[in-house]
Design brief:
The structure holds two protein chains of two kinds. Chain A is mainly alpha-helical. Chain A is 55% helix and 0% strand. In chain B, β7 and β8 form a beta hairpin. Chain B is globular and about 50 Å long. Helices cover 34% and strands 18% of the residues of chain B. The longest helix of chain B has 16 residues. Chain B is built from nine helices and eight strands. The two termini of chain B are 21 Å apart. The chains are: A mainly alpha, B alpha/beta. At the A-B interface, α1, α6 and α7 of A face α3 of B.
Chain lengths: 120, 287
């Protein structure tokens, strides 16, 4: 379980408009290319000084590629990061205010306290 | 020495800017009442006539990230660019550029370190809506220099609630000892019960109205004793998964002082969250 790397995906994709669009339209492809190009980048560091050890496990990769925000929550991804990115991708399809946000919560209605640990 | 002319604690709701500036069919039904409440709250700062704003907030994974996460950080820069692409995208927040009060930043860092708080610092900080929302609500002219102070309420492991209170008490003493003739307002924003990204989000009220009722009472009456007795890192999960932002209110209770009754207290029950607004005047209510 590499909560940190899942969070890093959510964080770096969310702040890049191009990556947001690619994640919306072709999630599997974006997850694959992100893992190859970005997973080991240390933010703020030169490319030659990247990390060498970071990779998703299969469950995480599938949850990200499947836009499965419920699974990401269950895996302990940071809920704020997941929500922010998913709103960026899907709020635009709303037919009324907060429609996506409410549906997002409703899909998690079966979850109860204590929530999964989000500490990294 | 500097004088602390107002201590202000508030929620920071990123929807306020868009709600208050929208018109016609886009204007939500709660906007007018919200604007009335904010306008009255703003007056509590205006009448204190501050020169400088110390602003406590929490970066929402914008500049501060898990590869290098400070618990408490003081900005020390001549300017702070403000608001981020994802805040423009989701909330319609404007770009801003508040000036910094660098000599007060330096004083807070030196005195804070010497008081036992190992404060991180930043000489190039882009601030987010935890700082800009109270500028928009309380000082929309954005004409006063600021000292931003960031706390980690977001990325566990977090400091204990008592540490937030202690830092607030220290900030009060440190600012009072600042050798300056300037009038300082200390403003901090956080949350009452709040859920983001979980099953209780975006309900008709905050996720835990009973917690909100107690929290408003603790803050308005300065009841740090009961607040500290009931609130722990563990307990804050129950009212909502983002409720650790309440610790910024606890920090501000530390600034105001144990037992200090707020001179102004108001709240607004919105969908999704309870808004709450408090002002203390340490030197008495301005004429």
């Amino acid at each position: 379980m590499t909560k940190y790397l899942v969070n890093k995906f959510l964080y770096t994709v969310d702040r890049d408009p191009d990556l947001v669009e690619r994640y919306r339209s072709a999630p599997e492809e974006l997850v694959t290319s992100w893992e190859a190009e970005y997973a080991n980048a240390i933010l703020n560091c030169h490319g030659a000084e990247a990390s060498t050890w970071l990779r998703f496990d299969d469950e995480e990769r599938a949850a990200l590629a499947g836009h499965d925000h419920v699974k990401l929550f269950e895996l302990g991804a940071h809920p704020f990061l997941t929500l922010t990115l998913f709103i960026a991708m899907f709020e635009r399809d709303n037919t009324e205010p907060l429609e996506y946000q409410k549906a997002y919560g409703a899909r998690m209605a079966h979850l109860s306290l204590p929530y999964p640990d989000i500490a990294t | 020495m500097a004088s602390i002319v107002a201590v202000i604690a508030s929620t920071h709701h990123p929807f306020y800017y868009r709600a208050s500036t929208s018109t016609g069919a886009d204007r939500p039904p709660f906007a007018d009442e919200w604007v009335r409440k904010i306008t009255a709250f703003r007056e509590t700062l205006t009448r204190a006539n501050p020169d400088v704003l110390v602003m406590v907030g929490s970066d929402h994974f914008h500049q501060l990230w898990l590869d290098n996460m400070p618990q408490f950080l003081v900005g020390k820069a001549p300017f702070y660019d403000a608001n981020w692409y994802n805040e423009e995208r989701e909330f319609g927040l404007p770009r801003m550029l508040p000036k910094g009060q660098e000599d007060l930043s330096a004083h807070i860092l030196r005195a804070g370190l010497d008081a036992g708080f190992d404060l991180a610092f930043s000489n190039e900080l882009r601030i987010d809506h935890s700082v800009t929302c109270p500028i928009i609500t309380l000082r929309p002219e954005a004409d006063l220099p600021i000292v931003p102070i960031y706390t980690n309420i977001f990325a566990p492991p977090l400091p204990q609630p008592s540490r937030f209170v202690a830092l607030g008490e220290a900030i009060r003493r440190i600012v009072e000892d600042w050798p300056s003739h300037l009038r300082v307002a200390i403003i901090g924003t956080g949350h009452l019960s709040l859920e983001l990204g979980g099953p209780r989000q975006f309900g008709p009220h905050g996720p835990d109205p009973e917690f909100d009722r107690k929290a408003v009472e603790w803050i308005a009456s300065g009841d740090l004793e009961n607040c500290l007795r009931e609130v722990s890192l563990e307990s804050l999960h129950a009212p909502g998964n983002a409720t650790h932002g309440f610790m910024d209110f606890m920090l501000m209770m530390g600034v105001a002082g144990a037992g200090a009754k707020a001179d102004y207290a108001d709240n607004l029950d919105l969908f999704h969250t309870m808004e709450a607004y408090f002002t203390w005047y340490p030197n008495g209510v301005p004429a």
